[in-house]
C-alpha cells in the first residue's frame, strides 16, 4: 500500500497522486487531509482509498467505482451524485450527504446533518447515528436506512424509493406525500 501526505498539497495535486497510486497499486492511504475539500471527487478508477482523518466538502462526489473510507468526519455533500462504489465514514457528516445519489453504498457510522439522501435515485445509504430534518426529501429511488433518531419531515415530497426508520417517534416526523407501513408485531 502507498501513502500520500496531503499536508502541503493542493487539492488538484492530491487527487492526481491518488489516481496514479490507484492505477499502480490499487490502494492508497491519505495522511494529514486537514479537512481538504473535493478529495476523490470524480473518480472512476477502481481501488481503495483510505483517508486517515477528516475531510471537507464533496468527498467522493461523482464517484464511479472506487471505495473510499474516511476515518474521521466529512463536510457537506459527501457522496454527491455518486454513481457506483462505496463510501464508509467512521464518524459524522455535514448536511446533504448522498444528494442525488445514483448508485453504490454509503455507510455513515456516526450521525449526519439535514437532507441526507436528498433527491436520491438509487443505491443504498445507511446512517447508524441520528439524521437531521428532511432526510430522504424528494427521493426518487434507492434505499435510505436510518438507525438513530430522525429530524422532522422525513421523506418530504418523495416519489419513489424506500426509507427505513428505526426511530419509534417517526410518525410525528413524517413529511408530506409519505406513505408508511409499520411491521406486524
Structure description:
- 44% of the residues are buried.
- The protein has 1 helix and 9 strands.
- By secondary structure, it is mainly beta.
- The longest helix has 15 residues.
- The mean pLDDT is 95.
- The chain has a 9-stranded parallel beta sheet, with helices on one face.
- α1 links the parallel β1 and β2.
* Element pattern in H and E: EHEEEEEEEE
- Poorly predicted segments: none
Structural class call reads: mainly beta
CA radius of gyration: 16 Å
Form type: elongated
Mean of residue pLDDT values: 95
Q: What is the rounded distance between the termini?
A: 49 Å
DSSP strand content: 25-35%
Number of helical stretches of at least 4 residues: 1
Strand order of the largest sheet: 1-2-3-4-5-6-7-8-9
Total strand segments = 9
Biggest sheet layout:
9 strands, parallel
Q: What portion of residues is helical? A: under 10%
SSE topology:
Layout: E1 2-5, H1 11-25, E2 27-31, E3 48-52, E4 64-70, E5 84-89, E6 105-108, E7 121-127, E8 141-146, E9 162-165
Parallel strand pairs: 1-2, 2-3, 3-4, 4-5, 5-6, 6-7, 7-8, 8-9
Brief write-up:
This protein has 185 residues and is mainly beta. It has one helix at 11-25, and strands at residues 2-5, 27-31, 48-52, 64-70, 84-89, 105-108, 121-127, 141-146, 162-165. The chain has 1 helix and 9 strands.
Keywords:
mainly beta, 9-stranded parallel β-sheet
Amino acid at each position: 500500500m502507498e501513502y500520500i501526505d496531503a499536508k502541503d498539497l493542493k487539492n488538484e495535486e492530491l487527487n492526481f497522486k491518488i489516481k496514479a497510486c490507484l492505477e499502480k497499486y490499487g490502494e492508497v492511504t491519505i495522511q494529514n487531509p486537514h479537512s481538504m475539500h473535493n478529495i476523490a471527487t470524480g473518480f472512476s478508477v477502481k481501488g481503495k482509498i483510505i483517508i486517515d482523518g477528516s475531510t471537507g466538502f464533496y468527498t467522493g462526489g461523482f464517484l464511479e467505482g472506487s471505495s473510499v473510507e474516511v476515518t474521521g468526519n466529512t463536510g457537506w455533500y459527501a457522496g454527491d451524485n455518486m454513481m457506483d462504489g462505496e463510501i464508509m465514514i467512521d464518524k459524522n457528516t455535514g448536511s446533504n450527504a448522498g444528494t442525488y445519489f445514483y448508485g453504490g453504498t454509503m455507510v455513515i457510522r456516526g450521525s449526519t446533518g439535514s437532507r441526507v439522501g436528498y433527491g436520491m435515485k438509487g443505491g443504498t445509504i445507511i446512517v447508524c447515528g441520528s439524521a437531521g430534518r428532511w432526510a430522504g426529501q424528494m427521493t426518487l429511488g434507492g434505499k435510505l436506512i436510518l438507525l438513530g433518531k430522525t429530524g422532522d419531515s422525513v421523506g418530504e415530497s418523495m416519489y419513489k424509493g424506500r426509507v427505513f426508520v428505526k426511530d419509534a417517534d417517526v410518525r410525528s416526523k413524517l413529511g408530506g406525500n409519505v406513505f408508511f407501513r409499520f411491521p406486524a408485531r
